[in-house]
Design goal:
8 strands, 1 helix, alpha+beta, four-stranded mixed β-sheet, 111 residues, four-stranded antiparallel β-sheet, single chain, 45% strand
Amino acid sequence: MSRFAIALFALIGLTWTASAQNYNFTLHNESDGWVISGFQTNVGGVWSRNWLSSNLSPGRSRNMVWSSQSGACVVDIRVTWQDWGSQEYTFNWCTENPRNIRMQNEGLTFD
């Protein structure tokens, strides 16, 4: 096999690895009494189904696993609060790579 063919296969493998990712993180509700009732992602202009099978009460957290084959780095998320409404945020998963998303009374933090 030629060096060119080996390099081409290596490049294809690296490209596929970069686009097929698992984004594992923990969603924390650090608000003062607000219940999170929904969490969605938007890839390609389409909002996902609600990731939460049950509400997330204040002081609680939930492990989230997002197996994405899209390779999109910049993704919008929507967090819905029971009896309040929703908020939307944008993450660059490739550079920010949050392991913890901490929802607060106003806004969020991540690390």
